[in-house]
Write a structure and sequence with these properties.
single chain, alpha/beta, 2 domains, four-stranded parallel beta sheet, 14 helices
């Protein structure tokens, strides 16, 4: 049975934002770029209005067609007469009628009194990031955007399912269309500036982290090609990172977040095992070697992972730079069933890519 073309279309996204937050809008679009590349999402904002076009009519046209409206909420957003008198009014009316989904995203801190809530109806909607913590208040902004993108992936999926369910039934069989599937387009940073920015930002972060840990310069061409390979992976990836000092891995975590690799941290073996027992959807575990109270804590974690999920790859990220000692450690890890070990960020990402794409 042929699939209904409406159900197959990307979710149309409208950005409602104050121009003071244009940089934040661009950051979010970069984090949603993988959704766009996979044909799941098609976005629009007012900077795409061409010279000579009626900008008010164009905004209204795009709003009327939008399946999803993102409100980038900040002090300037709330103070914008145009947003409140036009974009927000139309968006909320369409949301209440079931024609679109409105999601508020708190990008900068706002001071809201209880009596103000009646004038700000979007505050009754479930928003992002988690607990409505403003994006700019996160220590690592990329992690904030990854949190937002994770929530929006769920919303986009629900919109696609709703569109598929509402599609016309087959007159021959009387059944709904089959589930929609999408394939990512081949990555092309030469013609896609947003994608190029994502890859360049990842490469810069990983290169900087590698030098900070004493690894020296990296082959940026290799890093770029590895990043594009990761972007072209068909499924979202989740990593459990067990380390009693996660703050030491912030640069690496931020770099992975650029590619929408979601990282959940745990500070101990017991915390890591609990995470694995409660959530079977991790694609990779990264562990340190030892912790203050246990020199080979990582090996104990590895043994438990093998009991729970024998095929789940485990990569060790440690600080042993002496060649002989590192070789001995690597041999011990191979014998225990580890996927590999790394000392420098560039080495780590090569292993992460291999484990996640295997």
């Amino acid at each position: 049975m042929a699939e209904d073309p409406v159900a197959r279309r990307p979710v149309s996204l409208f950005y409602s934002y104050a121009h003071e937050d244009e940089v934040l809008r661009d950051e979010l679009r970069g984090h949603l770029k993988i959704l766009e590349r996979r044909g799941l999402l098609s976005s629009w904002h007012d900077r795409e209005i061409k010279p000579g076009e009626d900008w008010h009519a164009k905004i209204d046209q795009q709003l009327q067609m939008a399946d999803l409206v993102l409100l980038l909420v900040s002090k300037d957003f709330i103070e914008s007469d145009y947003i409140f008198g036009n974009e927000l009014t139309v968006a909320m009316q369409r949301h209440q009628a079931g024609f679109t989904t409105v999601v508020p995203i708190i990008v900068r801190a706002i001071d809201i009194e209880p009596e103000d809530r009646e004038a700000l109806p979007f505050l009754a909607l479930q928003g992002l990031p988690t607990d409505m913590k403003p994006v700019t208040s996160w220590p690592n902004r990329d992690e904030a955007w990854t949190n937002v993108a994770k929530g929006l992936r769920t919303t986009v999926k629900e919109i696609h399912e709703k569109k598929a369910a509402a599609a016309p039934r087959s007159p021959r069989r009387g059944r709904l269309p089959q589930a929609t599937t999408f394939a990512p387009k081949p990555a092309d940073t030469a013609t896609d500036s947003v994608l190029a920015d994502v890859v360049d930002s990842f490469t810069a972060r990983m290169s900087e982290a590698n030098q900070q840990r004493g690894g020296g310069p990296v082959d940026t061409g290799t890093l770029r090609s590895q990043a594009i390979r990761m972007i072209d992976e068909p499924d979202w990836k989740r990593v459990l990172w067990v380390d009693d000092h996660p703050e030491h891995n912030e640069a690496e975590t931020a770099a992975l977040s650029k590619l929408q690799i979601e990282v959940q941290t745990a500070r101990s073996t017991s915390e890591g095992i609990k995470a694995l027992e409660n959530d079977q959807k991790f694609n990779l575990v990264i562990s340190d070697w030892g912790r203050a109270w246990e020199w080979e804590a990582g090996l104990r974690l590895l043994a438990k992972v093998r009991e729970l999920q024998p095929s789940l790859p485990v990569v060790f990220y440690h600080g042993e730079t002496d060649a002989a000692a590192r070789a001995a450690r690597a041999e011990k890890l191979r014998a225990a069933g580890a996927f590999g070990e790394a000392v420098y960020p560039a080495e780590l990402f090569t292993l992460v890519l291999s484990a996640l794409s295997g």
